[in-house]
Design goal:
The chain has 343 residues and is α+β, with helices and mostly antiparallel strands. It has eight helices and 18 strands. Strands 7, 8, 9, 10, 11, 12, 15, 16, 17 and 18 form a ten-stranded mixed beta sheet that branches. The radius of gyration is 22 Å and the shape is globular.
Length: 343
């Protein structure tokens, strides 16, 4: 694998997982000090935030901040957003903020905006814009999840390490409410269903994900790809394409896009997964022109993060947000609706 692809894969992961077995001769030591000694480049405040959010466990139980490690203790720790090896610079950017308080930001991301600097996109990202927006304050843009460059919709950002750790635990445990609307090729025999299949990078094209079978009885770390589950239901049928709602049980890279292609329903206009050609329909020239016009109206995968729900890190109240479909997807859907009625 090339150095660029290795870096890209590292950047897809928002969490570091560590498992440590304490040495037999280890003297009793506060767990934050012990972990700071064993986790290179991780600050004590980040470790303390993870402990407060119950992301540090000793022998299977959440560790308290004053816990002292003992010989042969088994420690597992979840740390959000691994350290990056490049400098992040503030840049002015138009950001649509739906909600903000001292702990969190909810953003409505437009299609075409990259969330975090990485291979091929070192500037002009949402994080660069948030660094500019936060200038003069103590807030920091701390990611707890991402959505693809050409996917639109709601994105949650933490403003401090305590909030980040608390929210990261919810994402890691799949307790976050997330619903997407997608326009996909083809019709469905059923009104709802579930797609299960491990997701890993394609050996032919490392930029896309493939679905691999989940092997029962095989440990997670030895599986090919990572376990992924997508629930879907039909919202509206247009004959050759269908509007569906997708609910993520897991949050893997390109999960909806790869899962939908796997069952024969690639997202409309999704170039990476075969949705930018006529997958279903007639050979008539008039139909081809109609589809091309729809591609022109929505020249990216027709996927929108419509619903986001989470437990607030400070108030512990359930927060719920909904985002209307963006203009490009709505126009595309309206055209298919009219085509279905008039054809």
């Amino acid at each position: 694998m090339t150095e660029e692809l290795e870096l890209e894969e590292q950047q897809q992961e928002l969490y570091e997982h560590h498992h440590i077995i304490v040495d037999r001769g280890q003297e009793m030591l506060r767990i934050d000090k012990y972990l700071q000694m064993h986790l290179q480049g991780v600050s004590r405040t980040k470790i303390q935030a993870a402990t407060k959010a119950e992301c540090v466990r000793v022998n299977g139980k959440a560790a308290k901040a004053n816990y002292r490690v003992k010989p042969l203790d088994e420690i597992s720790i979840l740390l959000p957003e691994p350290p990056h090896e490049f400098e992040l610079l503030p840049e002015p950017l138009d950001i649509n903020i739906v909600y903000e308080d001292n702990d969190v930001l909810v953003i409505e991301k437009q299609p075409g905006l990259v969330v975090h600097p990485g291979v091929g996109n070192w500037n002009g990202t949402l994080v660069n814009g948030l660094l500019y927006y936060f200038q003069g304050t103590e807030a920091k843009p701390l990611l707890v999840h991402r959505i693809d460059k050409d996917t639109s919709g709601l994105l949650l950002v933490a403003k401090n390490e305590d909030a980040q750790a608390f929210l990261a635990k919810q994402f890691f445990e799949h307790s976050i409410e997330r619903k997407y609307n997608a326009l996909v090729w083809g019709d469905f025999a059923e009104d709802y269903g579930t797609i299960e299949g491990n997701l890993g990078r394609s050996p032919q094209d490392r930029k896309v994900m493939c679905v691999y079978p989940h092997e029962e009885g095989v440990p997670e770390e030895e599986q090919k790809g990572k376990h992924a589950v997508t629930h879907w239901k039909v919202l509206e049928r247009f004959g050759y394409v269908t509007l569906v709602e997708c609910v993520l049980e897991t949050g893997r890279t390109h999960q909806i896009r790869a899962h939908m292609r796997h069952i024969g329903h690639p997202l409309f206009s999704d170039a990476a997964y075969g949705g930018d050609a006529i997958v279903k329909g007639t050979t008539f020239t008039k139909y081809r022109q109609f589809v091309d016009n729809c591609f022109a109206v929505c020249p990216r995968q027709a996927l929108h993060a419509r619903v986001l729900g989470f437990e607030h890190p400070t108030t512990r109240k359930h927060m719920h947000f909904e985002s209307p479909l963006p203009e490009d997807m709505q126009q595309c859907i309206d055209r298919w609706r009219n085509y279905t009625v008039n054809s």
